[in-house]
Amino acid sequence: MLPTAKIGPYTLPNPLIVAPMAGVTDRPFRLLCRKMGAGLAVSEMVIADSKLWHTRKSQTRLNHQGEPEPRSVQIAGGDPAMLADAARQNAAFGAQIIDINMGCPAKKVCNKAAGSALMKDEALVREILETVVKAVDIPVTLKMRTGWDREHRNAPVIARMAEDAGIQAIAVHGRTRADKYNGEAEYDTIAEVKASVGIPVFANGDITSPEKARRVLTHTGADGLLIGRGAQGRPWIFREILHYLETGKHLATPALDEVEQILTEHLSALHGFYGEKMGVRIARKHVGWYLQAHDESKQFRKRFNAIDNAMEQQDSIEHYFARLRKEEEFAA
Ligand SMILES: Cc1cc2nc3c(=O)[nH]c(=O)nc-3n(C[C@H](O)[C@H](O)[C@H](O)COP(=O)(O)O)c2cc1C
């Protein structure tokens, strides 16, 4: 059964959210994941200091044209007033939800503690949460880790603080800051967070299959899930998980034709969004992820990564899939 997930006034179409990933969850990827079934896609983080927003990178991050509602924009920083200002400005640009990043393991953003490093300073966390919530009249959400190290898993404390401050939903990645991305995510602390607050809680970390999604939801009692790396090169993971949660049955994995179509459209969107030069570069890592499932793709990837124009990238993908289809026919 599918839990109903709400964030403030918004009832999400379903409880599966694309986790924010800087350098990955750009507008083309967010749109694609929504199309493939995700109920919400959080933007890549925007640095709170608006003096830095004139750069091309920031401008593309601030672009949400054509995205389905609600549009959630993540802000990152360590200064309450600056974060409040960033929240206000993003709301004016069309954000409908502001998400505060306390989950990123990067040490500093703009020379100040930010991301999960903030979790060590609970007084500052309280100030940030209260200031940002007061600054805007749209829902503010919080994304955090379970704590700053395994001896200090203070996510439940911060979750209660967040609820008191008026935060509308919380996402917890089941690792501490000190864990970085090592080891496996744990879900006991997420269950504790869920038991500590009345606002919606979303579980995150290492959810890469429908079965794991089911297990994490059951174990934590969470209202929904955030999926990050599991969607890289596999945006259809959202519909697969949804189908499994709804029916208990597995959806067939997409056929080669569909994968090719999804990938080609994704490349076109990247080329269009970033322009050819940058789009071609960004396309390389996505292609690498899509083709991970195919054993002999390493050599292809090497050749693909040397291509420096959009048309050739598309041709090369077309040839690659034509060959795969032939191999499939031969093996059948
Ligand atoms: C490349 C990459 C970029 C990320 N960028 C952000 C970010 O901008 N903001 C954030 O809160 N978390 C960020 N994260 C963390 C993810 O949102 C997520 O919490 C983490 O990857 C665990 O979930 P997963 O196992 O489903 O990937 C990033 C993760 C990756 C792999």
UniProtKB/TrEMBL annotation:
UniProt GO molecular function: flavin adenine dinucleotide binding; FMN binding; tRNA binding; tRNA dihydrouridine synthase activity
Known EC number: 1.3.1.-
Catalytic activity: a 5,6-dihydrouridine in tRNA + NAD(+) = a uridine in tRNA + NADH + H(+); a 5,6-dihydrouridine in tRNA + NADP(+) = a uridine in tRNA + NADPH + H(+)
Binding positions for FMN per the UniProt entry: 20-22, 74, 143, 173, 204-206, 228-229
Active site feature: 104 (proton donor)
Residue ranges occupied by any DUS-like FMN-binding domain in the UniProt entry: 18-318
InterPro entries: Aldolase_TIM, DUS-like_FMN-bd, DUS_fam, DusB, DusB-like, tRNA-dHydroUridine_Synthase_C, tRNA_hU_synthase_CS
Keywords: Flavoprotein, FMN, NADP, Nucleotide-binding, Oxidoreductase, RNA-binding, tRNA processing, tRNA-binding
Cofactor: FMN
EC supergroup of this enzyme: oxidoreductase
Pfam families according to UniProt: Dus
Source domain of life: Bacteria
Family: Belongs to the Dus family. DusB subfamily.
HAMAP family for this protein: DusB_subfam
Function: Catalyzes the synthesis of 5,6-dihydrouridine (D), a modified base found in the D-loop of most tRNAs, via the reduction of the C5-C6 double bond in target uridines.
Protein name: tRNA-dihydrouridine synthase B
Protein's organism: Marinobacter persicus
